[in-house]
Structures are given as structure tokens and as C-alpha cells.
Design goal:
CATH architecture of the largest domain: Sandwich
Helix content: 10-25%
Oligomer: single chain
Strand content: 25-35%
CATH class of the largest domain: Mainly Beta
Radius of gyration: 56 Å
Low-confidence stretches: 71-79
Number of helices: 2
Number of domains: 2
Strand order of the largest sheet: 6-7-13-8-11
């Protein structure tokens, strides 16, 4: 068994570039059963001093294994990592052509290119559908004669977009309307526009509901 251990340690030492020195004493006492290590020049490396051999078999094996680990670590540390290959830039997908619009939106403004309306109010029909009619009315100083009140057979919603005006509905007091004010006039109600601004156009949006 002792010879097997010695041969095992000797082989490990040889693989590390070292030489195993084993005790030649066969009787207990002194360096019996001890080992040491010399380098290739015969210089003591481990387990040898002036008195002789001092290391047992497990200590020699641990030393040799540790020497292997240190050699591997130094080798690994000195090796430069391989540069990672540069990733090729992804090809950009060609932009999809935008679909052509099916129709063009026509944008108009109720407050631009207004008629003068100096002699009479100007009426412009904006939309006419069954049950509804929308028109723009531009006034400039006009008023409804007292003896000729207005009266429709359908309900009417009126919004004052610009300017100023006075309005009176039958059996009510006169009210003053400014931009943003709106009024509901029921079908069959008599009503009068008592005055409209003279210094600027007054623009109405009237919605007639049948």
C-alpha cells in the first residue's frame, strides 16, 4: 500500500516538474514514512529541512494539487479574452408607403369672407337634410319691425358667433346676446331682433328642426 502511495505521489510530482523524495528508513523513528519535494535542480521545495523529510503523504498531495491550481490561475489570468465579434447592424426595413387618402377634407370658416350685409341681412344655407336645416345669418344694424314679428313653424336653436344683438320673445323681456350666447325658440313663438351692432358684423348660427 505504501509503495502505491509513493508511486502516486511521484507521478503527481513528475507532472508538476518536481521530484519526490521518500524516506528510505523502514523502521519507525526519524523521518520514517515522510516525504519531500525537490525542484529540477535538486533544491528543496517542500517538506525538507536540515533534519530530513517532514511532510506526510496527504500534505505532499495537497501541496501538489495547490501548485496545480496556482499554475492554472496564473495561466488563466494571463490569457487575454477574445474580443467579441461585432454584431452586424440589422438591416432597416423599408418604410411602408402611406396609403393615399380616399378623400380630401374641406375646411371652411364661418367667420371669414363675410358678406357686407349693409342693406339687408345675408342668409347662407350650410346644411339641409330631412328634419334639419342649418344656416348662417349675418346682420349689420338690422332689426325686426315691431309690427312684423318673426315666427316659424318649426323649433329653432340660435347661437351668436360674433358681434352683439338684442332679442325679445313674446311675453318676455328683451335680452342682450354676445358671442357664445345661444337661445331656444319654440315653434310658433313670436320673436323680434330688436337691434344688432352697427360697427361690426353680427354672425348667427341658426338650426331649424322640423
Amino acid at each position: 500500500m505504501a509503495n502505491q502511495i509513493t508511486e502516486h505521489l511521484r507521478e503527481m510530482a513528475t507532472n508538476r516538474g518536481l521530484k519526490l523524495v521518500a524516506s528510505r528508513r523502514r523502521k519507525p523513528g526519524g523521518d520514517f514514512g515522510k516525504y519531500g519535494l525537490n525542484d529540477a535542480r535538486g533544491e528543496p521545495v517542500f517538506g525538507i529541512n536540515k533534519e530530513g523529510l517532514t511532510a506526510d503523504a496527504p500534505a505532499i498531495e495537497d501541496y501538489l494539487r495547490g501548485a496545480t491550481s496556482n499554475a492554472w490561475s496564473k495561466s488563466a489570468g494571463s490569457a487575454k479574452p477574445r474580443p467579441k465579434p461585432k454584431a452586424e447592424p440589422e438591416a432597416k426595413a423599408a418604410p411602408r408607403p402611406k396609403p393615399k387618402p380616399r378623400f380630401k377634407v374641406k375646411v371652411e370658416n364661418l367667420l371669414t369672407r363675410l358678406p357686407a350685409a349693409k342693406r339687408a341681412e345675408a342668409f347662407t344655407e350650410l346644411l339641409a337634410r330631412p328634419g334639419i336645416r342649418i344656416e348662417r345669418i349675418v346682420s349689420r344694424g338690422q332689426a325686426t319691425p315691431e309690427d312684423a314679428p318673426m315666427m316659424q313653424a318649426q323649433d329653432e336653436w340660435v347661437l351668436l358667433l360674433e358681434g352683439a344683438a338684442g332679442l325679445r320673445i313674446a311675453d318676455s323681456n328683451e335680452v342682450t346676446l354676445h358671442a357664445g350666447d345661444h337661445v331656444w325658440i319654440a315653434a310658433g313663438q313670436k320673436h323680434w331682433v330688436t337691434w344688432t351692432a352697427r360697427d361690426r358684423p353680427t354672425v348667427w348660427l341658426a338650426v331649424h328642426l322640423d
